[in-house]
Amino acid sequence: MLNPALARALEKQYGISLDAATFVALSDDDGTFKPNAVIDQLRRLTGHLGEIVVQPRLVVSSFEEVAPALVADAKSLDHPVLDAAAGDATAKWTLEEGYQAVEAADADRRDPSTDVLLLDADAEQEHIVAQIAAGNSLVVRTLPGTGATQTIVNALGMLVGQNKRVLVVSPRRASLRGIAQRLGDVGLAGMAVSPSSLRRDVVRGIARNEKAIQPQLAEVDEALVRLRSVLIDYREALSRTDETLWVSVFDCVAELSRLALLPHPPTTTARLTPQAVRALAGDRASVAATMVEAARLGEFRYGPGDSPWYGAQFATGDEAARAHGIAKKLHADGLPRLLIKANALIGSTRMRPFTTIAELGIYLRLLSELRDTLDKFDASVFDRSLSELIVATAPRRDAPRCRAPTAGGSRSSRASTCARACMWAICTRRSPRSSSSASCGSATSPRA
């Protein structure tokens, strides 16, 4: 048969009338279907149009034209929504006038007995369900993954709760299966019926209704109200603005989170007293601008070489104030007097002038050690004869042994012998291999 949609389109747009019987006859060659003659005839009829190209193509299909039947059915339907969608101004005005604006009840304030949603929903989804429950006609455009299926399920539960029948249509079977699956997940598998399994679904729905028991939710609702009030108070406390500082805990946490997400989060060890925080609360914007400008000028670039106070830690404010007072006193009185005396002392020597306090300390330790050495130095060692010094500093094999004095020896000779032996012991005590020198040194008298 000739495609009636093709014949109608050529007739309407180009004024070309196609004879269906002629085309069917051209395709019949002694009982064999051969479309070549049909294609050639169509080329001859449309060849002068230029914008139509006829090419042979084999397509396997039922070739059922459903559009006229659908249009015919729509013409016989008397419904304002269909008429408005078709462009009827009166029907559109009727729908607009019949719209009843409703607002979904706040989930934090409403009575738990009125919470009849089957699945979780956010504020926008609850608003859609409330519009449907009020009888308003609407179109909802959604993206995949935005909760369209759960919104449909909630709308179904709301309408069924109003003893209404609902027809759900979809161009995709997967969407219908998803809705049925969600209903089954909440224990309402028998609420929906499908044309393909109508008998089974009806029997299952009746069986579910016969076994259904009215739930006792009074205690659950009461517990929900108590817990909800605690959470609401906690949330309000977080968002409540402080009367002194004019900020809330939520504001502080949000700002700290923003700073932490910066490429280079700011850090500081500075802490402000409550009095300072309250003093800054009135005009934080100007204080912040001043601190930003100070940071730009390098005020907060702080390191070991920037201040002698770097790294100082104080347990209390009084301890810090006491340390600051000592530093002021040293700066005003102690340090200037120290520098005057130090310059006079170092100037009396041949050492170069010091440049830092640390270098002055090195000079003072050196002079102190020299003084200690000179205080302990005994000049009587130079009263000895040169021969005794030579013997005392001679090699170990040439040094005399410290023997006990004989009975007939004089006292002066014994002292001279012991002095030489002790000087030899002092000069050779550095050798770790000498045991006799250590014993000889330990045998000397304090005077020697």
Report on this model:
The structure is a single chain. This protein is mainly α and 448 residues long. The chain has helices at 4-14, 20-26, 36-46, 67-75, 80-85, 89-97, 123-133, 148-161, 173-185, 198-211, 218-239, 249-260, 274-280, 284-296, 317-347, 357-376, 386-392, 411-428, 436-442; strands at residues 28-29, 32-33. A two-stranded antiparallel sheet has the order 1-2. β1 and β2 (32-33) form a beta hairpin. α7 (123-133) packs parallel to α8, α8 crosses α9 (173-185) and α17 (386-392) packs across α18. The radius of gyration is 55 Å and the shape is elongated. Mean pLDDT is 80; it is low at 402-409 and 423-448.
Summed up:
With 448 residues, the chain is mostly helical.
Mind sketching the topology for me?
Elements (H helix, E strand, L loop, with lengths): L3 H11 L5 H7 L1 E2 L2 E2 L2 H11 L20 H9 L4 H6 L3 H9 L25 H11 L14 H14 L11 H13 L12 H14 L6 H22 L9 H12 L13 H7 L3 H13 L20 H31 L9 H20 L9 H7 L18 H18 L7 H7 L6
Antiparallel strand pairs: 1-2
List keywords for this structure.
mainly alpha; 54% helix; two-stranded antiparallel sheet; 19 helices; disordered C terminus; 448 residues
Main β-sheet, in a few words?
2 strands, antiparallel
Shape: elongated
Number of extended strands: 2
List low-confidence stretches: 402-409, 423-448
**Strand portion:** under 5%
Q: State the helicity in percent bands.
A: 40-55%
The value of Rg in angstroms is: 55 Å
